Amino acid sequence: MALGPRLDIRQSQSLVMTPQLQQAIKLLALSNLEIDAFVAGELEKNPLLDSGSAPDDLPAPDGIDRDVERPALAAETGSSDDLIGQGLGASDSPLDVDYGAETFIDDGPGDRMASAHGTSSGSGSGMDALTGGSGEAVDFDSFANPEPSLQEHLMDQARAALSGMDLIVAGQLIGQIDPAGYLEANLLETAHALGLPLSDVERVLGVIHGFDPTGVGARSLSECLALQAKEADRHDPCMARLLANLDLLARGALPQLRRICGVDEEDMADMIRELRSYDPKPGLRFSSDRAAPVTPDLFVRPTADGWAIEINSATLPRVLINRNYYVELASGKQDKSAKAWLADCLASANWLVKALDQRQKTIIKVASEIVRCQEDFFRKGVAHLKPLTLRTVADAIAMHESTVSRVTSNKYLSCPRGQFELKYFFTSGVANAEGDGAVSAEAVKSHIKALIAAEEPHAILSDDTLVDLLRAKGMDIARRTVAKYREAMGIGSSVQRRRQKALQGKAA
Questions:
Q1: CB neighbours (10 Å) of residue 251?
Q2: Is the entire prediction scored with pTM above 0.90?
Q3: Cα 65 to the chain's mean position, in Å?
Q4: What is the Cα–Cα distance from 181 to 441, expressed in whole angstroms?
Q5: Average pLDDT over residues 75-97
Q6: Pick from 131, 250, 294, 401: most CB atoms within 10 A?
Q7: How far is CA 87 from CA 59, 69, 80, 98, in A?
Q8: What is the 3-state secondary structure (H, E, C) of 19-84?
Q9: What does each C-alpha distance from 346 to 19, 358, 368 come to in angstroms?
Q10: How confident is the model at residue 507 (pLDDT cuts 50, 70, 90)?
Q11: Residue 340, number of CB atoms within 10 A of its CB
């Protein structure tokens, strides 16, 4: 046996994750809006890419029917000879500017007004200028100043009521008020930091307590409600004792509260009714945080033959390869590096177009299988949602489970029943009492919620009773599972619900 070195030739196969393959996998997990941002970046980097125009079968953005308005549109797109032949020679003036070209930039409503009328004497009306020639008025609400924040609202009141060092103290305290309106500052530490006695800081805080909204600057819930009770002239000794024992009210210990407050049952009900009218978080009315609307990536609608599934093309960019520009560049004089750069741009453009097309096909394929598996949900509601796993969908469409997971991430589906994330349709199952199949966990939660919503104040359903009622409907479920689902939906126990019903009955 020879021990010396030698050269061998071997042939093997392996899956290599190329950079383009890695990028294609990342594209699957992006939503349509994120794809739009990604494509915008590619358009800036690659000169061979071009954003496609709207499809012929879709209405134009300006709402003009090109077939009906062809004579009038010839004034904008026709040659001078054509215009004179149609008697539209006076419309030749705007032909020297192409407002739809990429070189013409309109950044705002003012520019769009100028683009609609040019620099001429303005043959249109003032309303035409406001609409920008599109038939729709300018959305002036989008230019409105944002609503003032809670701190800005309080500082405006502080400048009107305080001055000098008191205003500085108020600024320090207001800056430490949370969005709900509660003061998070330690008064003693604030006094030491400013080099002032504690009494001065407390005096300024008392002034802040009189600001709008009532209850702002409180250090606890009882103090917040007490400030509002004083504003309503309802802060008597009985109300003060009730506010000092809110923990007993939360537990529903009404007999003990009546003894502490020294009132009868009717007065206690009136005091509770008064507390319910107060705002426990007065600062939230100045909150400017608004949840961003979710844009669906897919539309599902019923048809005579089943279900139609469409990609939301309004948020999905169309990308084309500018072949004419490529031919123009390739026909010119180029060195070796320029040819290599042009070839890379063309390869990158071809890959992006194919990757986006493959992404759409994959999303449609996965969504079609989800709709097929959950057809009862789309027709009858959440109570008929079936248990479904990623592996089930992956096996049905001959794809890897990780691919299905990426496709269903950050994607939303809009259907007649509402808007749902694709992940919503993948739920665990609960065994059927009759042994034929399983029931989705979301369907079980829906049944539990419906049963609790329909319970009477004098007949609160315990978890054991819920188990019996669910088994009567064919759902074999344990008591601890019912408790887990109930807590996940934010529903209290039977004891807590009984106390809430009693409080509501007293306050009614």
A1: 13
A2: no
A3: 34
A4: 39
A5: 42
A6: 131
A7: 28, 15, 10, 22
A8: HHHHHHHHHHCCCHHHHHHHHHHHHHHCCCEEECCCCCCCCCCCCCCCCCCHHHHHHHHCCHHHHH
A9: 16, 18, 33
A10: low
A11: 11
